[in-house]
Structure formats: C-alpha cells, structure tokens
C-alpha cells in the first residue's frame, strides 16, 4: 500500500512538528466496553513509539461517541460527525455495543454509519500466529497460518436494503436484500488481487456461495473471473464458503489471501483469529483506497462487557491495528518496529489470559513500551 502524501500539522503531544517532518492527526473513538481500555493502551504505545523514534509526530483527539452517548442523546453521532472526522488522517476505533442496546442499533448507529459514507470499502484483516502464541490446530506450525482476508465492506449482505411489514401480525414479513454492484465488486476484486500480488506467494482464494445464491453470488464469481485477467501473475481459485471453513482448519498452509463478501468475510475472519490463537490479537483496517477519506482502524474483538473493567483485556489487537494504521500512513519502519516489539513481548511470556498468560492489560502495555525503547535505541534494529 502506497504511503500517503506529506501531511503537516502541530503535535499536541510532542510539540510543533519540525520542518519537513511528517505529523498525523488521529481521531480516537474508544466506544464501549473494553474498547475504551485497549484504545487508551494503544494511544500510550503510539505516543511512546513516536517519542522513541523521533521521526514523526502524532496528535490525538478523542470523541465520546458510544452507547453512553446514545443513551444520553438518542443517537450515536452528531449531525456533523462526518465533517469532524474528515479532518483527520486516520481514525482509531475501539468497539461498539452494550448489553442494554440492541446490536443492530449500535452497529448501524456508529461503526457502519462511519464506514459506509466514508467509502471504507476494503476491510483488511491480516492473521498469523505470533511468536509466543499457539494455534488450537495441533499440527499447525507458525508459518502455516499467515493470511490476509479482504472483506467487501460497503454492500453485499450488509447493504442495509430491506424492511419489515405487518409488524406483530401472523403474516409479518421481513426482508434483507443483498446488493452486488458491478462497481462495488470490481473495486474490491481489484484491491484483493493487488493485495495478493504484493505478497510473496501471489495467491488468492475467492470465496463464494454461488451454488445456492444464484444471482448475487454468480455475479460475484463473474466479476472475479473478469478481474483475474488483469493479474496474470496471481494464482487464484474459488471456494464455497462452507468448504472454506474446513480448508482453513484442515489445510491452513494452502491459503494466503482471501476475498469474500461482507457477511462471509465477517464470519471467516473471526474463525481465522481463533485459529491463530485468540480473537484478542486480531486487527482490522477499514480502508478507503482512494484516500479521499480517512481510513478507520479497529481491533475486531468487540466490546466484551463480560471482562470490562477487570483490566484483563488483550491490547495486542489494538497494537497490531495501530501498526497497520502507521503502515497505511507511510510509516512502515515504525509499524515493523512496533510489531517486533509486540512479538518479543508475547514470546517472552507476557500475555493476557486469552493467550494462556496471567498478565494484565497495563502489564502488556508497559512491556511493549519498554521493548520499543530497547529496539529504538539499538544501533542495528532488526525489523520484523
């Protein structure tokens, strides 16, 4: 992914940006539950990374948009929310969802209300087994599971078309219409093929369900075959989504890059995270590849109210997400150093309970900060 154009701004954390030095404005939307805990941990690590490297600057502004905001104001976002976030270079998002708010209200009220109008049509979810962690697949070596899942993020099953009529009658009807457009399918396929092309194996699997869904999914397959001709160096195959779940479990090393619809990739990426060791390590990038709008970066674990306030939430997904954000902004070296620090810490046994450890959120955060210091001061940095 190409770096963004030069950005200048003042940095509220480390002072005014030096001439010619890149500076980035980051919108923080912690949201709900453990989202608040892990986003604040991510901010600590990012600030520390910027100070230690001293090669770029970060300025953060936090927004209170959340389920608490919804219960106070009757909506998740103010009318000018999109105008506010468009001023930023990126958005770091925690989670949305609360036990006393229906999930469809919270999801459509906050996350999707940002993703769709900001044209963040490419949802990218890298998955691999980090050093010091293990897969529940007994025969899966670390190098066997190294995937990127590309999720269509703007239409498909989550297009928002449909409705309910004759509510509370015996003849009530509800429809949920999947939308597949030529434009939407072509752009995500090109993005997925390009992503596969950039990886060493140059291999893409197109996930479908065209045996049963004979309109939208057949169209999806047709567009995939058309776009594939533009990438003759990419090896690609097609697989039904149900068969893909078994392939992910039984033959993980046969997979590299995956592209799937909004619903299918949503499900497969959670399975992928579990197979890599924990959903607590899984990152997400919601990208506008045109860079006309800011992209949004989020851990995928959700608000997890069952562990909120206990101090045991795994911040690794947010750290990995933060690394993906830095990479998107053009700070590849910083992203690599951050991931090296994270893996050195997990390999050293400093892990939260979901990874089989006993460390608290703050302990993992502090350990990653110390590792960043050590790596940044090393005369010969070994990058990830």
Automatic annotation (TrEMBL):
Name of the protein described by the UniProt record: D-malate dehydrogenase (decarboxylating)
Catalysed reaction equations from the record: (R)-malate + NAD(+) = pyruvate + CO2 + NADH
Annotated EC: 1.1.1.83
Family the entry assigns: Belongs to the isocitrate and isopropylmalate dehydrogenases family.
Enzyme class: oxidoreductase
Domain Isopropylmalate dehydrogenase-like: 25-368
Requisite cofactors: Mn(2+); Mg(2+)
One of the record's GO molecular function terms: NAD binding
Gene3D superfamilies for this protein: Isopropylmalate Dehydrogenase (3.40.718.10)
Keywords: Magnesium, Manganese, Metal-binding, NAD, Oxidoreductase
Listed NCBIfam families: TTC (TIGR02089)
PANTHER family according to UniProt: D-MALATE DEHYDROGENASE [DECARBOXYLATING]
Entry-linked Pfam families: Iso_dh (PF00180)
């Amino acid at each position: 992914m190409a770096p963004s154009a030069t950005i200048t701004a003042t940095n509220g954390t480390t002072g005014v940006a030096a001439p010619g030095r890149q500076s980035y404005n980051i919108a923080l939307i912690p949201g709900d539950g453990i989202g608040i805990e892990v986003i604040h941990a991510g901010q600590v690590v990012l600030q520390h990374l910027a100070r230690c490297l001293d090669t770029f600057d970060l300025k953060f502004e936090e927004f209170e948009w959340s389920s608490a905001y919804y219960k106070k104001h009757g909506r998740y976002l103010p009318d000018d929310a999109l105008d506010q976030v468009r001023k930023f270079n990126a958005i770091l998002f925690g989670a949305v969802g609360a036990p006393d708010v229906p999930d469809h209200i919270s999801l459509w009220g906050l996350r999707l209300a940002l993703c769709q109008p900001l044209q963040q049509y490419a949802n990218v979810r890298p998955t691999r087994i980090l050093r010091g962690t293990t897969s529940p697949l007994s025969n899966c070596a670390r190098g066997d599971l190294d995937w990127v899942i590309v999720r269509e993020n703007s239409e498909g099953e989550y297009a928002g078309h449909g409705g309910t009529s004759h509510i509370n009658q015996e003849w009530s009807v509800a429809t949920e219409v999947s939308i597949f457009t030529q434009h939407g399918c072509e752009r995500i396929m090109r993005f997925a093929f390009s992503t596969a092309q950039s990886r060493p194996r140059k291999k893409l699997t197109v996930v479908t369900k065209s045996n049963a869904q004979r309109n939208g999914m057949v169209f999806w397959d047709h567009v995939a075959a058309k776009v594939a001709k533009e990438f003759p160096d990419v090896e690609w195959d097609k697989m039904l989504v149900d068969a893909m779940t078994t392939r992910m479990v039984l033959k993980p090393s046969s997979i590299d890059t995956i592209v799937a619809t909004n619903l299918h990739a949503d499900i497969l990426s959670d399975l992928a995270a579990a197979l890599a060791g924990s959903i607590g390590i899984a990152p997400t990038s919601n990208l506008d590849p045109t860079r006309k709008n800011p992209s949004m970066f989020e851990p995928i674990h959700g608000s997890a109210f069952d562990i909120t306030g206990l101090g045991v939430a795994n911040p690794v997904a947010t750290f990995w997400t933060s690394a993906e954000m830095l990479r998107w902004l053009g700070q590849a070296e910083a992203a690599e150093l951050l991931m090296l620090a994270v893996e050195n810490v997990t390999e050293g046994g400093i892990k939260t309970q979901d990874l089989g450890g006993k460390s608290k959120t703050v302990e993992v955060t502090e350990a990653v900060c110390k590792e960043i210091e050590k790596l940044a001061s090393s005369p010969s940095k070994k990058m990830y």
